[in-house]
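Q: Give me the 3D complex with zinc ion.
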Amino acid sequence: MSRVSKVDLHVHLEGTITPAMVVRLAARNKIVVPDDLMKDGHFNWRADGAAAGNLMAFLRAYDHATSVMKCAADYTDITYDYLKRSADEGCIYAEITISADHGAMAGLAYPEMLAAIAAGYEKAREETGIEARLISTCVRHFGPEGALKVGKLTRDHPHPLVTAFGMAGDENAYTAADFKPAFDISGLPHRTAHAGEAAGPASIRAARDVLKVRRFGHMVRASEDTTLMEELKAINAVPEVCVSSNIALRVYKDYAAHPLRRSFDYGLKVTLGSDDPTFFSTSIGREYRIAQEQFGFSDKELRQISRNAVEEAFVDEKARARLLAAV
Ligand SMILES: [Zn+2]
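A: Here is the predicted complex, encoded as structure tokens.
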């Protein structure tokens, strides 16, 4: 394991639940999950069919696994568990995507969910020193009305750990403009949106021009358009790159096809993320290791990736200075 301090800028809280935690919470909340959901300590969802079938299989497993989350204690435990594991791998900062919609599915109001996540974070921080912030995120395929609701909740219940508004979910649903009101009403100064993963350059342009984001979830498919690459470099755009996720979901067929190295060498401000780590059998430590072993990144280059992430983290300048010193 590289001793470089790691930063995870792209990770969905529900996507960090481990198979062991699913078993524990299923027992605690008396929920039955399908027998074949897990195998040999991993989530067992990978289909051998087409990419679309693969994505559906992943989403089905995701829904089954997260269906065990039913109360505030579950959110606290999952947050603590993820941050503790990450800190043990040398992660000093994580920016966690949280979803009021998923909280509601677990029966929690947004402020209750926030308090539970904050409790898990405080415990992990006291034990390990890891820092974290939260990105309140709407789910694109739940539609503009749902997104607006999340934007309003975010505005109505400000929390010191929630420093940004984001958008996840199916990039091909609706148009970016449909979600501008949600971003605007959230009242938060920072924004990120998934773009350039399931859809191509047009999706990145829309997120940039309409939603005014400069930091993008994934953005890897910018590499399909040289003009766009130039434009993104000119505005110092920040891709949150999640290699294992991209390969598991067949955005790229293998490491050789993945644009991580090319994007970095081109001069984009590359950062790394674990996305839904336990579903892709990965972690932020493993993502740094893959960058080193599969893409030839030196420790110095990995440190540059961590520095990029801290420079673009959604934190105040005092926290940024503290994190930069740690990198
Ligand atoms: Zn994501």
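A quick observation: Residues 6-326 form a domain with the TIM Barrel fold (CATH 3.20.20.140).
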